[in-house]
Amino acid sequence: MFQETPIYSRLVAERGDVPQLVRGEAERIQRDLGRLIALPPQPPAGGQPYHPRTTH
């Protein structure tokens, strides 16, 4: 895989491990979306469930 180079190590020391931070944030978003998508549809607050009209 990727071999660290002196310039990469210096950038990580100066700026942080940006690829790792992005990867972690992407995984968190993926988990959150997975939970949201898995939920059954909810009726609107204080109203009746939405039933789309079909026209024939």
Protein described:
This protein is mainly alpha-helical. It has a domain at 6-37. The protein has two helices and no strands. The chain has helices at residues 6-15, 18-38. The longest helix has 21 residues, at 18-38. The termini are far apart. It comes from Streptomyces rubrolavendulae. This is DUF5753 domain-containing protein. Residues 36-56 are annotated as: Disordered.
List the helices and strands and how they pair.
Blueprint lengths: L5 H10 L2 H21 L18
Cα Rg: 22 Å
The pLDDT mean sits at: 81
How many strand segments?
A: 0
User: Approximately how much beta-strand content do the residues carry?
Assistant: under 5%
Write down the secondary-structure element order.
HH
The global form is rod-shaped
Main beta-sheet annotation:
none
**Uncertain ranges:** none
* Cα separation of the termini: 58 Å
What structural class is derived from the secondary structure elements? mainly alpha
> Roughly what percent helix?
55-70%
Which characteristics define this entry?
0% strand, 56 residues, mainly alpha, 55% helix
